[in-house]
Amino acid sequence: MAGHSRPKGGVASLAYDPAIHALLSSPTKAWMPGTRPGMTNESAEPEARYGPFDVVVVPFPYADRLAEKRRPALVISNRKLAVHGLIWVAMITSADNEAWSSDVAITDLKRAGLPAPSVVRVAKIACIKPGRIDRRVGRLDKAAARMVGQKLRGFLGPI
Question: If DSSP states are collapsed to H, E and C, what string results for 35-55?
Answer without folding.
Answer: CCCCCCCCCCCCHHHCCCCEE
